């Protein structure tokens, strides 16, 4: 996959952004929140007594999908299934590296059925190398591809044993990180990969040894303050140039801009009621860049 310049230049508080960074076109899997609800609580953000506006959630999700298409990316659709209200968070369903797929095994029984839905999609889309995790692993929620390594978290959902399994199945070395703040129960709520060598993260979400490790690996990382982290600002999607992040994380957007990236704000307040943001809604389908073909049998989002 070759770098492709994308002409969209979103405006922020300081006007249109000019950036020398180059985007790579991506292929993403999304699932419309047609059955979205908060009927149980498996993270601190979820409150079943708090009303959810499903129509608003669907509207906000469609805007996110339109932004991704507008940036030149391919968006494929996973069909929603009744009884699985969190299916909109496709990032948790699998991790895909060079055409190899590791389907998640969820910690909580309320989400267990999502694994089978993802397996069916990858079979229909003719992905040839699909494995289902033996260890508890919640996909790109806790396994973030960063260049030629995978940053993998444990502490709340994914187990340390799953890190070794991911390394074996996906063929990249895994760096283990420990989350300690239950509000940031997945790695993608506390850290975002901006490009192959740069990340942004919230130090207070991690154990002290992990903070030291991240400082050593990424000395020029962008650090999110508590307010932007609580706005789910780190639950972001980057194509190497554009960074799609929650509109409420204004300070983080300015840091992203100052680092030469193009912030693209979106608003998903209904999905935040379930502890989800832009990245939670997007699973990246990384093709085999060594020449292997990955066909797409599923329809694109209309």
Automatic annotation (TrEMBL):
One of its GO terms (molecular function) is amino acid binding. InterPro entries: DDAH-like. The active site is at residues 186, 280. Keywords: Hydrolase. GO terms for biological process: arginine metabolic process; citrulline metabolic process; positive regulation of nitric oxide biosynthetic process. Pfam families: DDAH_eukar. Belongs to the DDAH family. This is Amidinotransferase.
């Amino acid at each position: 996959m070759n770098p492709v310049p994308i002409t969209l230049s979103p405006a922020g508080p300081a006007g249109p952004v000019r950036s020398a960074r180059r985007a790579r076109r991506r292929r993403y899997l999304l699932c419309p929140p047609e059955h979205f609800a908060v009927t149980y609580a498996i993270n601190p953000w979820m409150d079943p007594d708090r009303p959810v506006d499903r129509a608003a959630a669907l509207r906000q999700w469609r805007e996110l999908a339109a932004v991704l298409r507008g940036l030149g990316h391919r968006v494929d659709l996973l069909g929603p299934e009744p009884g699985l209200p969190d299916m909109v968070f496709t990032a948790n369903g699998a991790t895909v590296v060079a055409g190899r797929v590791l389907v998640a095994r969820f910690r909580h029984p309320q989400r267990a059925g999502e694994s089978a839905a993802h397996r069916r999609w990858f079979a229909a889309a003719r992905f040839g190398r699909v494995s289902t995790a033996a260890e508890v692993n919640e996909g790109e929620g806790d396994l973030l591809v960063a260049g030629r390594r995978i940053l993998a978290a444990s502490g709340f959902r994914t187990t340390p044993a799953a890190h070794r399994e991911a390394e074996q199945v996906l063929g990249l070395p895994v760096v283990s990180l420990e989350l300690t703040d239950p509000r940031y129960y997945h790695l993608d709520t506390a850290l975002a990969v901006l490009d192959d060598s740069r990340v942004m993260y919230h130090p207070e979400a991690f154990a002290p040894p992990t903070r030291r490790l991240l400082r050593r690996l990424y000395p020029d990382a962008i650090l999110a303050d508590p307010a932007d982290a609580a706005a789910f600002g780190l639950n972001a999607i980057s194509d190497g140039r554009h960074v799609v992040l929650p509109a409420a994380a204004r300070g983080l957007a300015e840091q992203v801009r100052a680092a030469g990236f193009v912030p693209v704000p979106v608003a998903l307040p209904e999905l935040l009621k379930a502890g989800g943001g832009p990245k939670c809604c997007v699973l990246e389908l990384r093709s085999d860049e060594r020449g292997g073909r990955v066909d797409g049998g599923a329809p694109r989002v209309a």
